[in-house]
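hey can u check if this looks right to u? its 235 residues, i copy pasted from the old doc so theres a chance i mangled smth
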Amino acid sequence: MATFRVENFFTTFNNKLEEPVRKHLKNVYSCVAISTLTAAAGGYVHLFTNLFQDGLLCTLAALGFLALLHFTPSDGKNVALRLSFLVGLAFTTGLGLGPLLKVVITVNPSLISLAFLATSTIFLCFTLCSLFSERGSWLFLGGSLMSIMSTMFLLGIVNLFTRSVFIFQIHLYLGLAVICGFILYDTQLIIEKCRMGDRDFIRHSVDLFIDFVCMFQRLLIILTQKEGSRKRRKD
């Protein structure tokens, strides 16, 4: 029975997506996996060494690698160079998560693995939902998601001055919902770009990697808040 379901899954997948698209997605998700492992290495380096402890410097370095990747167009001959930019982006992103990871460890170290597992599960579910939905059915989300992001940006600026816990919570949970929407949107957008001849799998993987990291970051904060509240009630 399980074998039958697996065969049905791959049959449906192969029927919905043509061979070039499947090959492209394989490359995209391979890059996402590499980026995720590299980011984990960056977080480890921040936690257990005295190297690269400046959070602002890590953020600037990540933006620098992102700019290099953006302004180095794919020509089929510079894959190794652009992969190195992607690895640099992922590593510095992981370094930037170090301060948050340190806070989480003081509360409950197991929350990191729990957040990663939850992030992976949610990411997989929304990815499969996007892949098996009707062609282009989630592309309409683009405008709405960008509008919500603009609103969240304004809320973030306001909260720099008000320090409102309520606004912070809205920003946190609304951001989580928006990221889920972006997973649906970005996945189908990558497929459509591939069908139109854009086979830059390295650049496409960046969007999904950022979705993954942003979701992981928010789930870490949410789980840490809940664990902290539970400990306070217990005390």
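Residues 201-234 form the longest helix (34 residues).
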